[in-house]
Design goal:
mainly beta; 17% strand; elongated; DUF3540 domain-containing protein; DUF3540
């Protein structure tokens, strides 16, 4: 038995895997002659690039924290401090999506601006509350099953208005006045004018024409 055991090949042990190590450093961000980002840390000037997790875009003069994996591989991980007056820009290359499953997302600022070539908003319920609102556009289309406007005053200025509806009902408590150079009212079947006092005034001519005309 001892001889058989001594003839078995010895089992080789695999060397333990080693993790890739990195070195942290802090420096001031600048740019070189070709516009590449350079971090000055101590006596070193290291070319660096922003890590994907660093959403705040670094600017020249920022104090940044970097991770050095290799002599030629330095990543800007975070912006520690920046000079007053430098704009804070949050961005990332490519597509970006902010998801808050089961929660709420709120934006709070003195002014919020949105600039886009195309803006899509999809919601089951939308509500906009504002003391003053301005909507400016070259072409505006509103499509809805029901449209309701409630206000104390409505003022519109149009070069041309064209309206079509299956049924049109208008009620005015006060004065309903139309002033135009030429007014035409046409009914396919019946036109009725009724009032407690009805006045028809033609400065030069009043003409009535029909197969039968009844007064009284």
């Amino acid at each position: 038995m001892n001889n058989e055991t001594s003839k078995r090949p010895a089992t080789r042990r695999r060397p333990a895997a080693k993790a890739i190590t990195g070195e942290w450093c802090v420096g001031i961000l600048g740019t070189d002659a070709v516009g590449a980002q350079v971090v000055a840390s101590g006596g070193l000037r290291l070319r660096a690039q922003r890590a994907a997790s660093c959403l705040l875009e670094p600017a020249a003069g920022d104090s940044v924290a970097c991770l050095r994996i290799a002599p030629d591989e330095v990543w800007i991980m975070a912006v520690l401090q920046r000079e007053e007056g430098t704009a804070n820009i949050v961005g990332c290359p490519g597509q970006m999506r902010i998801a808050v499953p089961g929660g709420a997302l709120e934006l709070e600022a003195a002014r919020v601006g949105v600039r886009s070539d195309e803006l899509d908003i999809a919601a089951q319920k939308a509500r906009v509350a504002s003391d003053t609102a301005d909507l400016v556009g070259r072409q505006l289309s509103v499509v809805g099953t029901s449209l309701k406007l409630v206000g104390s005053m409505l003022s519109s200025v149009m070069d041309r208005v064209q309206h079509f509806s299956s049924s049109y009902l208008r009620t005015t408590d006060g004065i309903d006045r139309v002033a135009a150079t030429h007014v035409e009212v046409e009914a396919m079947q019946l036109m009725r004018l009724e009032g407690e006092h009805t006045l028809v005034n033609g400065r030069e001519l009043v003409k009535a024409r029909g197969a039968q005309i009844h007064f009284g």
